[in-house]
Inverse folding.
């Protein structure tokens, strides 16, 4: 079931939580709404669910497939909603929680109790909790509770599954597992899902497409690869990962900042700020033909396949972060206090509107 | 010489001062003001045989007073359960002009002396009072009947239900409502199957406390009750009557029944509440 | 935000029925008290209030209340300090025991005091030998008043002090504060509003206690009659306006209590926000 939002806006009192927004989500897509807190992502999700009412001026429209649901009450929208803190009914067993949506259907549409039992057990099997049917929510771990909450949301075979920071309250390891598991489930059952997250890694790993939001606006909608490769603006670039800044004066194709120099032949003279990703920095014993950026190592932390190295220098107002492979780390025998040269592989620069990405002038 | 610190074995581990002093004050007060007077009841009763005790507490007029008291208290508690739930719901869930005033009004029965409540209700509902004049033509007699007793009991105990349910309802996360609604439940179904079970412990506790309070209430009731033997005489009044007859043994025997029932109910409420809360918040498994 | 029972019709029905029922059930009696008290005009009200026996009853009631409050205050603070700052065997039992006055019928409370301290009681008969009479005199009234009001201060303080924990006090101890200084400078500022509220409740109950007092007072007009007992006598003598004049005074105290409570709650809410 596709979702189409047209001209959806939301104001709380005097603050505009959402500027008028258009958004198309395709049938069977898994879309992440990504943004910092206060960006309006949760509000947007809740408007899709029918838990919040969009502003009536301007009049927006929400369609599920061909169905216009703008005026449809949340209980009739046929959505599944998964809450950040699970919102399980504490006084009901796991079985009763999952069966709830089926048992409250109008008598005529309600399946027989035998059918309900069979369906709930199939769902519990799917979320790998068939042995926990008789337990109460308080007796389950956070990850298990969130799986129950998912089974409960899926019990009514909703057209659309909506998840509000579904893994936000869980610890890192469980979050990893659940993410992968949700992705499989989505591919298997092929429903349309929208989830909210403030964790860029989660959004990039899980989504078919990511909607990046800030200040009630959509900044960019793209696939994870495209988003990372071609950020639409400075906000997206900064939000998607760690950023190192280099600010200096350009004259005759060379940017100078204290005793640091970088060749930037295609830039006009004037004040410039360049942005660099940690993995786009190379460390070396000596400056290259195009870059002379002397730095001192102040901290080293091995994280997974890479080593994160913190760099400082007189000409840097804030420390830089570089990620290097273990092989390079050992070759250079990097240690704290060591003096090295940073060599950018590429750098980014954002005008007010347009985006430019350049390789440093070829060496 | 033995000091308090010696008796209590106050160890050097206690960081904060005042253990000996606060323990001394508390124990002295509790023993002298609470426990010692209670023992006098048993002292008084130890003088009579079990058969004699039974004869006093099963006297027909006394038994009639149990029936009146328990029946009226039960009705008052049930009315309060419904009324208190409504009030708590309205005060927590809705905004409307005068809400703060209504909220403050809920405490009136606790703040108003019971004798004042008693004469006021009696005057209001007597046949020429404001309410009595309205109800009399309809054939509804409140003053000097057990309805009046139930009314006085309900008046004095309404804050128990409101004030126990209110905080629980306030703490109920909005997600619980939303979860029920996203699963397609109607308002009535969601209230019955999701909200009410959450409020249940508080509602039962509040109703139970209101019931216990009604069993012992005296000042608010005697003015409106009429106090006709076998008809509208409450047990607390029976104790009072025996005392005025200088029948201390009789008064003590009846008082021991009232006391035992109140304390047993209080204990039962506490145990029941403990169990219920345990299930909701984990433990065991 | 979608909530259960938010449909405008439902909301209107529930609010209106709650307001109407409360008005009928709670507000009407309050109005009736003052209407009755002033039924024959302000002058009659005033002459009722300034009647000799009424003034004596007011005097006794104030006297009892003024003596009750400090006792309850000291006990309440000591008990709250004890059960929230230390752990020792019997702590929970102690906490349960102080609820007894709430569960016990006031008549039973009066009775047990009468049995113990009355002329035939264990202690009473012994005191009688020294010609000291506690029952049917003001000391008896004071004792039962303390009995029925003693939980209020402790009940207000315990949850608050439990929630606050003892970190502040422990920090103060490491800084060298001790004893009275610690309590006055660190603990008291944190609990003063709860303490005040406890005192207000104690005051309201002490002024209005009827059942327990009527058992031990003897109700001698002009001597052992508190204001609630006095209004009972007037009412039994068919002096309704006189009875309601006293009732209006007591209701006024109740209203001040409610106003003070609302004020304190408003203050607390504003501090949180």
């Amino acid at each position: 079931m596709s979702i189409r939002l047209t001209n959806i806006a939301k104001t709380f009192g005097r603050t505009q939580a959402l500027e008028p927004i258009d958004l198309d989500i395709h049938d069977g897509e898994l879309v992440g709404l990504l943004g910092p807190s206060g960006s309006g992502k949760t509000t947007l999700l809740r408007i899709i669910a029918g838990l919040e009412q969009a502003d009536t001026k301007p009049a927006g429209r929400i369609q599920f497939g061909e169905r216009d649901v703008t005026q449809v009450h949340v209980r009739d929208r046929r959505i599944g909603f998964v809450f950040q803190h699970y919102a399980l009914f504490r006084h009901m067993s796991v079985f009763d929680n999952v069966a709830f949506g089926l048992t409250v259907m109008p008598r005529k549409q309600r399946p027989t109790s035998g059918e309900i039992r069979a369906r709930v057990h199939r769902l519990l099997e799917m979320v790998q909790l068939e042995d926990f049917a008789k337990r109460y929510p308080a007796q389950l771990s956070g990850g298990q509770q969130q799986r129950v909450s998912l089974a409960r949301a899926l019990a009514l075979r909703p057209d659309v599954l909506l998840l509000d920071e579904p893994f936000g309250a869980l610890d890192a390891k469980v979050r990893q597992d659940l993410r992968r598991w949700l992705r499989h489930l989505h591919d298997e059952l092929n429903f349309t899902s929208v989830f909210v997250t403030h964790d860029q890694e989660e959004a990039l790993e899980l989504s078919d497409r990511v909607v990046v939001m800030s200040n009630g606006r959509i900044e960019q909608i793209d696939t994870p690869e495209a988003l990372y490769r071609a950020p639409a603006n400075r906000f997206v670039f900064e939000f998607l990962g760690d950023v190192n800044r280099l600010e200096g004066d350009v004259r005759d194709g060379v940017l100078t900042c204290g005793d640091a120099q970088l060749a930037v032949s295609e830039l006009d003279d004037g004040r410039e700020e360049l942005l660099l990703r940690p993995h786009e920095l190379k460390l070396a014993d000596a400056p290259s033909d195009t870059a002379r950026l002397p730095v001192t190592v102040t901290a080293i932390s091995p994280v997974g396949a890479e080593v994160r190295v913190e760099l400082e220098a007189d000409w840097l107002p804030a420390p830089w972060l570089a990620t290097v492979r273990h092989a390079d780390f050992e070759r250079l025998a990097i240690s704290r206090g060591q003096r090295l040269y940073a060599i950018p592989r590429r750098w980014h620069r954002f005008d007010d509107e347009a985006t430019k990405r350049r390789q440093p002038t070829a060496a | 010489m033995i000091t308090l610190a010696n008796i209590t074995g106050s160890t050097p581990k206690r960081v904060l001062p005042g253990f000996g002093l606060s323990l001394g004050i508390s124990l002295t007060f509790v023993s002298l003001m609470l426990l010692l007077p209670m023992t006098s009841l048993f002292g008084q009763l130890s003088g009579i045989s079990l058969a004699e005790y039974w004869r006093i507490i099963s006297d027909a007029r006394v038994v009639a007073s149990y029936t009146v008291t328990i029946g009226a208290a039960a009705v008052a508690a049930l009315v309060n359960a419904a009324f208190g739930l409504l009030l708590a719901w309205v005060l927590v869930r809705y905004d409307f002009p005068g809400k703060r005033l209504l909220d403050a009004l809920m405490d009136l029965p606790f703040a108003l002396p019971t004798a004042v409540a008693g004469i006021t209700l009696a005057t209001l509902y007597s046949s020429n009072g404001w309410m009595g004049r309205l109800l009399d033509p309809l054939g509804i007699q409140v003053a000097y009947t057990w309805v009046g007793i139930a009314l006085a009991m309900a008046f004095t105990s309404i804050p128990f239900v409101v004030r126990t349910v209110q905080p629980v309802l306030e703490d109920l996360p909005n997600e619980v409502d939303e979860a029920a609604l996203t699963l397609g439940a109607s308002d009535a179904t969601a209230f019955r199957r999701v909200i009410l079970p959450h409020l249940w412990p508080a509602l039962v506790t509040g109703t139970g406390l209101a019931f216990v309070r009604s069993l012992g209430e005296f000042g608010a009731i005697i003015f409106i009750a009429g106090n006709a033997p076998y008809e509208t005489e409450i047990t607390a009044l029976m104790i009072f009557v025996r005392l005025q007859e200088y029948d201390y043994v009789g008064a003590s025997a009846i008082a021991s029944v009232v006391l035992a029932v109140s304390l047993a109910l209080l204990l039962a409420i506490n145990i029941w509440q403990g169990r219920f809360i345990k299930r909701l918040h984990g433990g065991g498994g | 935000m979608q909530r259960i029972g938010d449909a405008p019709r439902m909301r209107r029905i529930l609010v209106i029925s709650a307001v109407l029922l409360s008005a009928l059930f709670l507000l009407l009696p309050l109005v009736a008290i003052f209407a009755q008290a002033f039924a024959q005009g302000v002058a009659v009200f005033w002459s009722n209030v300034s009647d000799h026996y009424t003034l004596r009853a007011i005097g006794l009631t104030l006297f009892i209340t003024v003596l009750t409050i400090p006792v309850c205050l000291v006990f309440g603070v000591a008990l709250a300090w004890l059960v929230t700052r230390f752990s020792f065997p019997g702590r929970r039992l102690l906490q349960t025991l102080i609820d007894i006055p709430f569960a016990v019928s006031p008549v039973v409370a009066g009775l047990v005091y009468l049995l113990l301290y009355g002329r035939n009681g264990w202690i009473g008969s012994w005191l009688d030998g020294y010609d000291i009479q506690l029952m049917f005199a003001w000391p008896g009234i004071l004792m039962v008043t303390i009995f029925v009001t003693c939980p209020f201060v402790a009940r207000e303080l315990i949850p608050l002090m439990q929630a606050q924990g003892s970190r502040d006090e422990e920090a103060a101890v490491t800084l060298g504060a001790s004893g009275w200084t610690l309590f006055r400078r660190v603990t008291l500022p944190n609990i003063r509003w709860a303490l005040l509220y406890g005192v207000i409740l104690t005051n309201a109950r002490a002024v209005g206690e009827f059942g327990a007092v009527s058992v031990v007072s003897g109700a001698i007009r002009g001597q052992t009659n508190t204001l609630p007992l006095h209004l009972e006598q007037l009412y039994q003598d068919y002096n309704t306006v006189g009875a309601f004049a006293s009732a209006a005074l007591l209701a006024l105290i109740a209203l001040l209590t409610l106003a003070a409570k609302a004020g304190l709650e408003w203050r607390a809410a504003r501090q949180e926000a």
About this structure: Chain A touches chain B at residues 49, 51, 74-76, 79-81, 83, 85, 87-92, 100-101, 104-105, 135-136, 138-139, 152-153, 155-156 (CB under 8 Å). The CA atoms of residues 281 and 344 of chain A lie 5 Å apart. The longest strand of chain A covers residues 15-25.
